[in-house]
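protien #1 (seq + structre)
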Amino acid sequence: MSKKNKRLFSPGQIRTSAKVKLLTLYCMNRLPYPVSIGKIHEAIGVDRGFGYFDTVQAVSGLINTGHIEEVDYYGSALYKTTERGKAHGAIAEGDIPRSVRNKADPKISALVKALKLEHMVKVFKNSKKPGSSLPQS
């Protein structure tokens, strides 16, 4: 097998559930609004060492330990970090390889922009319901 093919099929740096959890917290600590598991995976799916179901298991484990909570956000069940998750994620983010963080950061930034736009649309739609008024600036 050539060196090129060896690199193509080599496993990623994120192989354990603990590292998937750390990468999940790293991502979620940078998000301004609650998010779905699918969007979390889109942002952190930068490493071939894990897949969508590993992300689902990581979120489930982080809920069980109190690092993430499920919230109702405009009628959708989404996830956000707790204060405990923010504190522990900030302490442990150095354990994530820099190369993985460098790959994840642009995806996280794009997700932040999309979430802000989505939030503005939801706020606007909800403010147009009968009996409500537009928010005052």
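ok now protien #2
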Amino acid sequence: MKIIIQEKARKMLENKLEPGQFLRVAVSEGGCAGLTYDADISREMKEGESVILQSGDIRIVSNPESSQYLDGLTIDFSDDLIGGGLQFTNANAGTTCGCGASFNLAGFPVIENGKCGKG
């Protein structure tokens, strides 16, 4: 599985994560294009979760249902006032929402016209 953590995201996570903490990344249904990324920082793994990436002191954990959609993921960080925070993009995404908040991969229905309803 290939996951890239860009330098700005790496620095932010190294500063934010305390010893024993990890970044949980999940994919859930939602958004205009069908799928969205969810992320949180935690200390305790949930049932069925596993470490999908260990890079220095940064651990990324996910569940089996989400892990299948994380190959090709790039994690970046923006400190912009609007839309700042961790940014998730996937090179394998077939469709993305116009506002960039959701995506679609093979095997999920394509949203008509591929446009975000947020207009």
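The chain is about 10% helix and 40% strand.
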